[in-house]
Amino acid sequence: SALELVPFGIKPLLRRAAAYEALERYQLAYVDYKTVLQIDCSIQSAHDGVNRMTKVLLEKDGVNWREKLPPIPAVPISAQTRWNVPSAGGPTTPCETAPLGKPDQTAAGTERARTLKEEGNELVKKGNHKKAIEKYSESLKLKKECATYTNRALCYLTLKRYKEAVQDCTEALRLEPNNIKAFYRRAQALKELKDYKSSIADINSLLKIEPKNTAALRLLQELNRA
């Protein structure tokens, strides 16, 4: 009811997310926490909530858990308090949000970014990784999204462009600090670049989140033999 009066109110969103979490409705809690981060990406409790929900949903629904999520609403610029009140003296770093512009342009841009990402996904299935990279790059110009970075990183790995893969995974981890795919793919790229120490560090970080990840355990064994 509070959100009907004030759409994108941070307190109602956070409290509803906490309520959903308590009711084990983790997908809805994830959506509310992510919506809060679009409004103000400096809110630590929302970051913590996203990390908790990511872990729970990964365990519950597997690696394709994102495909089962309800849509995350696009927050209009007028509701993005981060841009209205920049931190004094500090650099303004965009987090996972829609590009600056008018609200209707923002919504259109977000939808276009999603379409481009899906087109990239289809190209990956067909094995056309170079063309997929183009689609993901266009999508990222409109909206910085973790999944798009990790998908493009996979393409870079396939094409043996390991430095670009590392860069994309690093960007993904800035958006979602506990992202399993970003840790794993960066570890793969770092292994190919013979930076074994950093690669092992990424695998260890991944295993703290998901201790029984068989692919990570296998890669760790390979790294220890390297």
UniProtKB/TrEMBL annotation:
GO terms for biological process: protein targeting to mitochondrion. This is Mitochondrial import receptor subunit TOM34. The keyword Mitochondrion does not apply. Pfam families: TPR_1 (PF00515), TPR_8 (PF13181). Keywords: Cytoplasm, Receptor, Repeat, TPR repeat. One of its GO terms (cellular component) is mitochondrion. GO terms for molecular function: heat shock protein binding. PANTHER family: MITOCHONDRIAL IMPORT RECEPTOR SUBUNIT TOM34, RNA (RNA) POLYMERASE II ASSOCIATED PROTEIN HOMOLOG. It is found in: Cytoplasm. TPR repeats lie at residues 146-179, 180-213. Its main location: cytoplasm. Residues 88-107 are annotated as: Disordered. PROSITE patterns: TPR.
